[in-house]
C-alpha cells in the first residue's frame, strides 16, 4: 500500500483502542459518536462558511468586483460576521403560519444534508458509514430534503413561498431521476454500490476515463441534474428572487434562514463530493495503469488533498454556471429533464451496459 | 396631406365641429354631445385614419372643463388636436373614447382622478393615483391647507 | 380600501383554482413602487392589474405655481434615466411658444446629450433585464460602462443623474473643454464593450429560449395602446419622433429607425441593442462638428408665454414624451400635462402578459423598461 502514511484508519483505530481500554463498549460507542458528530458539525460550519466566502469571491471575479474586502484580511472574516448577524437576528413567524411545520422544515433540510455527508469518504479511512448500498443510501436520503422545502413553502402562509415550494418539488422530484440513473450507469461500471468499493475500483484509473464516452455523458448529466437538485442557478426557480422575492424561504429569518442557507451550500458540497467519488476517483490520486513512476509521484500527495482539490474544482464549475447563465422557466426546466436528460440517460445506461459486457472500457 | 386638405376632410364629417389652423396643429372644437360620433369618424375615415391617440389632457377653465385630445395618423403622418368642452364644471361628464382607442381608458382614469371629470361608458372608472377621499387637485378651486403652502 | 373591496367583489367571478398575488409595491422586479395585482392559475397569468400612485408627486400641480425655467428642473425627477430629454422637451416647448430660435451649437449639444442619456438608459435597462432573467453578472457589466457616461455628465452638467442641462433658450452652461475628447474616448471604448453584451446574454441559449416567441404585441395593438419607443418599434410601429418629426439636430444626421415586425420579448431586446449602435453613430456624426457660438440666447428675466396651448413631442429612451402647456399669458403656466411614455406603455401589459407564466411576466415587464416616477409623475 503506497499511501499508508496518509491512511486515517490507523488514527481511528488507535482512538478506538484507547477508548475501549478505558470504558465499557457502550460508553466507547457513545463517546465515538459524540466525537464524530462534533467533527461533522465543525466541518460543516467551517466548510459552509468557506463556501459562502468562496462563492462571493468567485462571483465577484466574474462580475469584475473585489468581493468582500473589509472584514479581516481580504474579507476573510466577512462570512463569520454575517453568521453572527444571522444568529442574533429576531426570529419572525407569520401570523397564520403552521407553527409546528414552520419550525420543523429547516431542521429536515439540514438533517438530510448531514445524513448524506456521513457516507462520503474524505480520505482513506475517513468515512463514517460504509454500507454495501452506499450509493442507494445517498439517493434515497437526499430525496427527503424536498419535503423540508415543501413544508417550508406550505407552512409559511405566503403565496410566493408556496409557488416556490411547488416549483422546487416538481424540479427536485424530476431531477432525482437523472441523478439516480447517471449513478446507476456508473454502478454498472463499478460493479458495486459500496462507496469504498467504488473508490478502490478507480485505483488504476478514474471512472470518467475508464468508462470513456458513456461515463463522460453520465458525468455531464450528473452535474446538470445535481445543480438542479441543489436549487442553484440557472435552476434556482424555487428562490428566483426577481419573480418570487425569495421563494420558499421568504418568511424565514435569523438562524432558521441560516439553516436553509447552510443546507444549500452543504448540498453543493455533496453534489461535488458525489461527482468526485463516483467519476473522479474520490480521494484516489490521478493514476494511469502502466505508468508506475507517474503513479508514485501522484501518491506523494495525500488523499485528503486530492479529494478537496477535485471537490473544489467541481464546485467552481457549478458556481461558474450560476454566475453566467440566466434562469430557466418552470416548463423549460421540466422539458429539459423529461424530454432530454431522461432519454439520454436511459440510452446511456444501455451504452454503458454494452461497454461493460463487451469489455470495451479501459 | 396639407393642412388645408386636412381641414377640408375634417369638415366633411360635420357633427357641428369647427376646425381651424392653430398655432401648431389643426385644431377642432366639437360639442360634447356629438364628440363620440365625430371621434369615431376620425379613426375610421380612410383619408383621416387617426389611429394613434397620443395624449388626453383635461384642463379646468373657470367656467367649464375642457378635454384635449392629441391625435396622429400613423398611416398619413398628420396630427390634429380635438378640444371638447364639458357641460358645466361641478359634475362634468363626457363620452369615453375607450372603445375607439384603448389607451384612452387610462388617460381618462387619470383625468377622472385629478380633475373629477366623469366619462360615460368608461369600462373601469376608478381613482388612479390618489385615495378615494382625496379631492381633485388639478381643479382650480382645490384647497389643501396641509400640503400646499400658498404664497 | 376601495380597491381592496373591488378585488373582493370580483373574486366572486374567480374560479376556485385561481388566486391573486400582489407583485409590489416592494418587489425586486417591479423596479420601484409599482404594484401589479396578478391573477394566477398555477403559474399562468390570467390578468394583470397595474396599481400606481405610490410615488405620485404631483408635478403637474406643482408646475402650475412655478415659472417656466423652473418647470424643467422638476422633469428631471420624472423619468430620471431620460432626464436630459425631458428637460429638452420643456425647453423646446417654451422656445416654440416664444418663437425663439436657438443657435446651432445648442442644437448639436442637446442632440449629443440626448443620445448619451439614451445610451446610459439602455445600458441600465440591459443590466436590469439580465438581472430579471436571473443572470446577475450582466448588472455589473452594464453599470461599468454607464459610469463613463455619468462621468461625462458630471463634468459638463455638474450632476450625474438629474442633469438639468437644457433650459428654455439654450443650455445651462457651455460644454466642458474635455467634453469632446471624453465622448470620443467613450464611444471608442464602448464599441469594443457592446459586443461583449451580446456574447454574455444575447446569444445565450437559455436567454433566447426564455424570450423568443414570448409576449407578443401586434402592431395594431401597439398603436391602439399608444405603446411607443423601442417597445412599440419592436412591434413594427414606426414611432421614432427623431425620424418622423425631427427636432434639435436630428435632421442633420443619418441614422436608421430600428424596426422589427416580430413583436416578442426578444424583438424588444434586439431593438434596444441595435439602438445603442445607432446612438453611437449619431454622436460620432455630431461630436466633431459642434459649431462655435453661444450656448444660450439671452432670454428675458421673466419668461411669459403668449396665451394659447402648446405641445411638444420628444423621443426619450422609453418612447414618446409630450409636454402640453396651457398658458394664460402669465409667468406661470395655467396647466401643464406631461404625456409620459411609461404610462401608456405600462397599461398594455395586461394585454400582452395574459396566458404567459409569471417568469414571462417578469421578462415582459423588463423589456418595457418602466421607470415608476415617470408613470406616477
Please tell me about this protein's structure.
The complex is a heterotrimer of chains A (362), B (151) and C (377). With 362 residues, chain A is mainly α. Chain A contains 15 helices and no strands. Chain A has helices at 9-22, 25-62, 78-88, 99-117, 134-142, 145-155, 159-190, 195-200, 207-210, 212-229, 241-244, 254-279, 292-299, 303-324, 330-357. In chain A, helix 1 packs antiparallel against helix 2, helix 4 (99-117) runs antiparallel to helix 6 (145-155) and helix 6 packs antiparallel against helix 7 (159-190). Chain A is globular, with a radius of gyration of 21 Å. A 5-stranded mixed beta sheet of chain B has the order 1-2-5-4-3. A two-stranded parallel ribbon of chain B has the order 6-7. In chain B, 22% of the residues lie in helices and 26% in strands. Chain C folds into 2 domains: 2-51, no CATH class; 59-376, Orthogonal Bundle (Cytochrome-c3 Hydrogenase, chain B), CATH 1.10.645. In chain C, 54% of the residues are buried. The longest helix of chain C has 29 residues, at 104-132. The chains are: A mainly alpha (362), B alpha/beta (151), C mainly alpha (377). Chain B binds chain C through residues 22-25, 51-55, 57, 59-60, 68, 70, 74, 77, 81, 101-103, 105-107, 110, 114, 126-130, 132, 137-138, 151, and chain C through 1-3, 6, 52-53, 56, 58, 60-61, 65, 96-97, 221, 223-226, 237-239, 244, 308-311, 313, 320, 322, 324, 326, 334-335, 337, 339, 343-344, 347-348, 351, 376.
**Content of β-strand of chain C:** 5-15%
CATH evolutionary superfamily of the largest domain in chain C = Cytochrome-c3 Hydrogenase, chain B
Sheet with the most strands of chain B?
5 strands, mixed
Question: Ends of chain B: how far apart?
Answer: 49 Å
Helix content of chain C: 40-55%
Average pLDDT score of chain B: 83
CATH topology of the domain at 3-90 in chain B: Beta Polymerase, domain 2
The total number of structural domains of chain C is 2
CATH class of the largest domain in chain C: Mainly Alpha
User: What structural category characterises the helix and strand content of chain B?
Assistant: alpha/beta
Strand content of chain B: 25-35%
Structural class of chain C: mainly alpha
Strand arrangement in the largest pleated sheet of chain C: 1-2-3
Point out poorly predicted stretches of chain B. Answer: none
Amino acid at each position: 500500500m503506497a499511501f499508508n502514511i496518509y491512511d486515517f484508519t490507523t488514527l481511528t483505530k488507535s482512538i478506538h483502542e484507547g477508548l475501549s481500554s478505558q470504558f465499557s463498549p457502550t460508553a466507547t460507542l457513545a463517546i465515538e459518536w459524540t466525537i464524530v458528530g462534533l467533527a461533522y458539525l465543525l466541518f460543516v460550519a467551517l466548510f459552509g462558511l468557506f463556501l459562502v466566502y468562496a462563492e462571493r469571491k468567485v462571483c465577484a471575479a466574474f462580475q469584475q468586483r473585489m468581493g468582500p474586502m473589509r472584514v479581516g484580511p481580504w474579507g476573510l472574516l466577512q462570512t463569520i460576521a454575517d453568521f453572527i448577524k444571522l444568529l442574533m437576528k429576531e426570529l419572525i413567524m407569520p401570523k397564520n403560519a403552521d407553527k409546528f411545520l414552520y419550525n420543523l422544515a429547516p431542521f429536515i433540510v439540514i438533517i438530510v444534508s448531514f445524513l448524506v455527508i456521513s457516507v462520503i469518504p474524505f480520505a482513506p479511512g475517513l468515512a463514517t458509514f460504509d454500507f454495501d448500498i452506499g450509493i442507494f443510501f445517498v439517493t434515497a436520503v437526499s430525496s427527503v430534503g424536498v419535503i423540508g422545502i415543501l413544508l417550508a413553502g406550505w407552512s409559511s402562509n405566503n403565496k410566493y413561498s408556496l409557488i416556490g415550494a411547488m416549483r422546487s418539488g416538481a424540479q427536485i422530484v424530476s431531477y432525482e431521476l437523472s441523478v439516480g440513473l447517471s449513478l446507476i450507469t456508473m454502478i454498472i461500471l463499478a460493479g458495486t454500490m459500496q462507496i469504498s468499493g467504488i473508490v478502490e475500483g478507480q485505483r488504476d484509473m478514474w471512472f470518467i476515463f475508464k468508462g470513456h464516452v458513456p461515463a463522460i455523458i453520465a458525468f455531464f448529466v450528473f452535474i446538470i441534474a445535481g445543480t438542479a437538485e441543489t436549487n442553484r442557478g440557472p435552476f434556482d426557480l424555487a428562490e428566483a428572487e426577481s419573480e418570487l422575492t425569495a421563494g420558499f424561504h421568504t418568511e424565514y429569518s435569523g438562524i432558521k434562514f441560516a439553516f436553509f442557507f447552510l443546507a444549500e451550500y452543504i448540498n453543493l458540497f455533496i453534489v461535488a463530493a458525489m461527482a468526485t467519488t463516483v467519476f473522479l476517483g474520490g480521494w484516489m490520486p490521478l493514476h494511469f495503469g502502466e505508468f508506475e513512476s507517474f503513479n508514485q509521484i501522484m501518491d506523494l500527495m495525500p488523499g485528503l488533498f486530492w479529494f478537496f482539490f477535485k471537490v473544489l474544482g467541481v464546485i467552481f464549475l457549478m458556481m461558474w454556471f450560476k454566475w453566467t447563465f440566466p434562469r430557466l422557466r418552470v416548463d423549460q426546466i421540466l422539458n429539459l429533464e423529461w424530454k432530454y436528460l431522461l432519454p439520454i440517460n436511459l440510452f446511456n445506461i444501455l451504452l454503458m451496459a454494452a461497454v461493460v459486457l463487451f469489455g470495451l472500457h479501459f | 396631406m396639407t393642412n388645408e386638405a386636412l381641414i377640408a376632410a375634417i369638415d366633411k364629417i360635420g357633427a357641428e365641429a369647427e376646425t381651424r389652423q392653430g398655432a401648431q396643429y389643426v385644431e377642432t372644437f366639437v360639442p360634447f354631445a356629438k364628440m363620440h360620433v365625430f371621434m369615431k369618424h376620425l379613426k375610421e375615415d380612410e383619408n383621416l385614419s387617426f389611429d394613434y391617440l397620443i395624449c388626453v389632457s383635461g384642463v379646468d377653465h373657470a367656467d367649464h372643463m375642457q378635454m384635449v385630445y392629441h391625435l396622429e395618423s400613423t398611416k398619413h403622418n398628420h396630427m390634429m388636436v380635438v378640444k371638447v368642452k364639458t357641460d358645466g364644471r361641478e359634475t362634468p361628464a363626457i363620452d369615453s373614447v375607450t372603445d375607439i382607442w384603448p389607451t384612452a381608458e387610462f388617460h381618462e382614469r387619470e383625468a377622472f382622478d385629478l380633475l373629477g371629470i366623469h366619462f360615460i361608458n368608461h369600462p373601469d372608472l376608478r381613482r388612479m393615483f390618489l385615495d378615494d377621499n382625496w379631492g381633485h387637485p388639478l381643479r382650480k378651486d382645490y384647497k389643501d391647507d396641509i400640503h400646499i403652502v400658498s404664497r | 380600501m376601495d380597491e381592496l373591496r373591488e378585488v373582493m367583489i370580483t373574486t366572486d367571478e374567480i374560479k376556485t383554482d385561481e388566486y391573486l398575488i400582489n407583485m409590489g409595491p416592494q418587489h425586486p422586479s417591479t423596479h420601484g413602487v409599482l404594484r401589479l395585482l396578478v391573477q394566477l392559475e398555477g403559474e399562468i397569468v390570467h390578468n394583470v392589474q397595474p396599481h400606481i400612485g405610490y410615488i405620485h408627486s404631483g408635478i403637474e400641480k406643482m408646475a402650475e405655481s412655478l415659472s417656466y425655467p423652473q418647470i424643467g428642473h422638476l422633469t428631471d425627477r420624472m423619468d430620471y434615466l431620460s432626464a436630459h430629454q425631458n428637460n429638452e422637451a420643456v425647453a423646446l416647448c417654451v422656445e416654440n411658444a416664444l418663437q425663439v430660435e436657438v443657435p446651432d451649437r445648442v442644437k448639436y449639444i442637446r442632440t449629443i446629450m440626448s443620445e448619451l442619456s439614451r445610451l446610459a438608459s439602455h445600458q441600465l435597462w440591459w443590466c436590469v433585464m439580465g438581472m430579471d432573467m436571473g443572470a446577475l453578472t450582466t448588472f455589473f457589466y452594464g453599470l461599468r460602462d454607464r459610469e463613463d457616461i455619468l462621468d461625462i455628465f458630471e463634468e459638463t452638467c455638474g450632476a450625474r443623474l438629474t442633469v438639468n442641462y437644457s433650459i428654455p433658450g439654450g443650455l445651462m452652461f457651455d460644454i466642458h473643454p474635455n467634453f469632446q475628447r471624453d465622448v470620443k474616448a467613450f464611444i471608442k471604448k464602448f464599441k469594443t464593450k457592446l459586443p461583449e453584451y451580446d456574447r454574455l446574454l444575447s446569444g445565450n441559449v437559455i436567454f433566447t429560449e426564455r424570450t423568443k416567441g414570448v409576449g407578443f404585441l401586434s402592431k395594431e395593438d401597439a398603436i391602439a395602446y399608444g405603446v411607443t419607443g423601442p417597445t412599440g418599434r419592436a412591434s413594427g410601429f414606426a414611432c421614432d419622433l427623431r425620424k418622423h418629426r425631427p427636432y434639435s439636430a436630428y435632421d442633420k444626421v443619418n441614422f436608421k429607425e430600428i424596426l422589427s415586425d416580430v413583436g416578442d420579448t426578444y424583438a424588444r431586446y434586439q431593438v434596444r441593442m441595435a439602438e445603442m449602435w445607432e446612438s453611437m453613430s449619431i454622436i460620432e456624426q455630431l461630436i466633431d462638428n459642434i459649431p462655435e457660438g453661444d450656448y444660450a440666447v439671452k432670454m428675458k428675466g421673466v419668461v411669459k408665454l403668449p396665451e394659447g396651448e402648446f405641445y411638444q413631442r420628444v423621443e426619450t429612451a422609453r418612447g414618446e414624451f409630450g409636454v402640453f402647456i396651457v398658458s394664460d399669458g402669465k409667468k406661470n403656466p395655467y396647466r401643464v400635462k406631461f404625456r409620459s411614455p411609461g404610462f401608456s406603455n405600462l397599461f398594455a401589459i395586461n394585454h400582452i402578459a395574459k396566458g404567459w407564466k409569471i417568469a414571462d411576466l417578469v421578462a415582459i415587464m423588463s423589456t418595457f423598461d418602466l421607470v415608476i416616477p415617470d408613470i406616477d409623475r
